[in-house]
């Protein structure tokens, strides 16, 4: 896809591959069961210790581990353990309670309300954070390596730009230590990653902030499905959206060390859709997904104040949840990425190969998110190309992204999901050009200034982009096609890899529709003659039918795969495009054809909702569009329109200015696909073609793929 870039591994001290979060001292000290055992056993015989078993204001009996943590003990009756002990995978014992005179035959404590447990945990974290002084903060052990990267550690850091009050030239004379760091002031340090990568860290422990939610509280929200959700995430989502490091994350999840509550909540939010397809969810309590989403958003808002790479990772995952993907959140993530220098290429920076690859993957994932967010919300893109120097992804950039068991070959980290991710980036680049060429305020001014030549001006600018789209689709690897393998039938079971292709293809159709919407909107008697209008509408009709047939061929395995947040709008755009063609149809027969096809499309969406609930919004959008289409005046019939054309020709009408033959227009082989075009011969001998009279029976199945790809 791009020229490979040779990246040399850093010769500096080793660094952690996994982003180290900002963890409160109370959470990090209690996350390891082995560290808590000596403290409990040494106080077992102390009356003061046993009197603390039943803490004031708490009903029931707390287990030994919860007594030590000073947290509520909420029992999970399904596994006969409290949620905290199940989360830490340790025995739930009541030794202290028995020594205090509580009988073993006493009934187990009742399950507390989830709200009480979460409120108590948040209050405990806030109390510990308020008691922390600058002196005690300095004594806290660091979880980072000897020379932590300011981008991966929990310490706040920001990229120094070229126009700030800090003169970059003076940084060349700053004395640096063995870690390429220098002191600017008692509270500010600078680290040089390369000539174009200088970061400033704020060394101010008095502002050390604890997240308002601990790992235990996040795990409680999804118990007992935590492990299942993590497995589903790395099975279905991470291969095609590799913004994490799989093995480091799994290790941190197993050991409960170095794992950010924000990142864990983001993984749970995105994987929660698979609870609907898990048999265990029919017998056990389902998590409160709305509360999980609000928790993740709260943690993300706190992290955005001082962002690091964990903030970007979690934000990208959360924004793949279509209900949370807002234009405002996209802007916050883009700003945070600029703070971290993700818009610059890091080839010459003093970083490990793994971290360079992680930064590039995050940069391109955010690039895709920004461009599709611009399409979905109708807002300008916030990542301009003149401030983007990140190189295209190569195989080396996926080092450490996936577990070694997922590699296809011994010496390769490239799999189906990785290729799918790269193809989505290439398609997004074409979409970005479409948005910049046709959907900016400056472009609209240029179209208006073209006057009667507006349609032809748009077609001239659309031609090279249409060729790029055709070439992109033609050059897709065979395994990326929807009909791969070609010998499969509808009843055959789809592989996980083939099922994940749907999101890429719906994005392709949305890109095609975005290009053709601008063309159709420009058509009018003043800007295009009947023949040109017929060509443009026939091409648009072919795209619409192809997109509808694609949705109709989706199987449950496709619908249950991972779909990025923009997919919800991409499905809706098909209906919106059909409504546009219906409203601009020149005849009553053509309008009725589109009305019937849209009704069929709505039925297809309605039967697919059970496997993809996000399609409900596409149905609602289609209903709104059809309601608006009822206000369009009724179109004349074909016979009535041809009669008026004959009268016009006999009267010697020459048509509007600029309606002459003009330059030939070719829309990638879409001419002549309509069949049944009505014509009338004018007095001057010219042939007048009635626009939009393509045969309603024409469908994509009657055409070769090359004609509309």
Secondary-structure blueprint:
Layout lengths: L24 H6 L2 H10 L4 H4 L13 H6 L5 E2 L4 E2 H6 L6 H5 L14 H18 L2 H5 L18 E3 L8 H4 L9 E5 L2 E7 L2 E6 L12 H8 L3 H12 L8 H10 L5 H11 L17 H16 L4 H11 L7 H13 L13 H25 L38 H23 L2 H9 L4 H21 L21 H4 L2 H21 L7 H23 L3 H4 L6 H18 L4 H21 L6 H15 L8 H13 L28 E3 L5 E3 L20
Antiparallel strand pairs: 1-2, 3-6, 4-5, 5-6, 7-8
**Tertiary shape:** globular
Radius of gyration from CA coordinates: 31 Å
* Poorly predicted runs: 1-59, 101-118, 121-154, 204-208, 407-411, 653-665, 668-709
Largest sheet: 4 strands, antiparallel
Class inferred from helices and paired strands:
mainly alpha
Could you give the distance between the termini?
A: 20 Å
Mean pLDDT figure: 75
* Percent of residues in beta strands: under 5%
Tell me how many strands there are.
8
Proportion of helical residues: 40-55%
How many helices in DSSP terms? Answer: 28
Widest β-sheet, arrangement of strands: 3-6-5-4
